[in-house]
Amino acid sequence: MKEPHLAALKCPQCGKKLQFSRESASNESVEEGQIVCEKGHTWPIHGEIPSLVYPPISAKDAKWIKKYDEMAESYDESVKQYDDWLGINMMKEREQLAMFVPIEGPTRIIDVSIGTAANFVALHNRFKGQMGRFNIHGMDLSTRMLGMAKRKMSELGIDASLTHGSVFNIPYQSNFFDIVLHTGGINTFSDIHGALKEMLRIARSEGMVLVIDEGLSPRMRNTEKGKEIIKANSLFAARPPLEFLPEKASNVEITYIMNETFYQMVFKK
């Protein structure tokens, strides 16, 4: 964990600034150690990844995190089943995220449920040679998913800061990111409004929040194919969570992607 990563964070318990503990202070990077806030709240660092989860997650959310931990090693292969089933190329679809990224200049991007870092792999595919202009952060509640993300990005030479944190209380500074990503997961969240409010909080003024999850378009859900999809996986019956948008969300746009099987909700601060 490096100093610029630390500077982007805040204590999830009191909101105060964080610093490396005296024992963990380093001019390079901290692999194992602790960070502490001005009020003395202490948080561990393991494998360069700080753990800043507060308060403890609900039983409902813990159930899903356990599933993600269990499937972390096989997750990328299992997701490929969607390609044939839905008639898509999910990695190519993810590469369409590039349309939301400025064509030049430094850009701060966070994926608040990074999983195995598929979104950043997709951006790497589209921005080879330009990744250095991105300040990339990834956060997840699944430590095993974070481990997979770290391994994958290291292999690709992507410089990223990873944090073990909760989307219901994101341990990052307010008004920090140009782009806040979330793909897959929000349909199962126990507090969708709270998660969207936190995503908007960490976006800068005029910053963009992009949320994607399973959810058939109105047209698709009335087709025989759509009915088959929903019968096989009820998550595809979900609709864009417009009723949970925070008051300060503006310029809200809903589109349907991946053969109209996923909704894409974009809004600004």
List strands and helices in order, with pairings.
Elements: H1 3-8, E1 18-20, E2 33-37, E3 42-46, E4 49-50, H2 59-71, H3 75-79, H4 81-86, H5 90-94, E5 107-111, H6 118-126, E6 134-140, H7 143-156, E7 160-164, E8 177-183, H8 192-202, E9 203-214, H9 218-221, H10 224-232, E10 250-257, E11 262-268
Parallel strand pairs: 5-6, 5-8, 6-7, 8-9
Antiparallel strand pairs: 1-2, 2-3, 3-4, 9-11, 10-11
Helix pairs in contact: 6-7
Which tags fit this structure?
7-stranded mixed sheet, 269 residues, 4-stranded antiparallel sheet, 2 domains, alpha/beta, 25% strand, 10 helices, Rossmann fold, single chain
Characterize the structure shown.
Helix 6 (118-126) runs parallel beside helix 7 (143-156). The protein has 10 helices and 11 strands. The longest helix is centred in the middle third of the chain and has 14 residues, at 143-156. The mean pLDDT is 96. Helix 6 (118-126) links the parallel strand 5 and strand 6. It is globular and about 60 Å long. The protein has a 7-stranded mixed beta sheet with strand order 7-6-5-8-9-11-10. Strands 1-2-3-4 form a 4-stranded antiparallel beta sheet, with no helix packed on it. It folds into 2 domains: 1-49, no CATH class; 53-268, 3-Layer(aba) Sandwich (Rossmann fold). It has 269 residues and is an alpha/beta fold.
The percent of residues in helical segments reads 25-40%
* Poorly predicted sequence stretches spanning 5 or more consecutive residues: none
Shape: globular
Number of domains: 2
SSE series: HEEEEHHHHEHEHEEHEHHEE
- The total beta strand count reads 11
User: What name goes with the CATH superfamily of the largest domain?
Assistant: Vaccinia Virus protein VP39
Rg measurement, Å:
18 Å
Q: Any idea of the CATH topology of the largest domain?
A: Rossmann fold
Hey, roughly how much beta strand do the residues contain?
15-25%
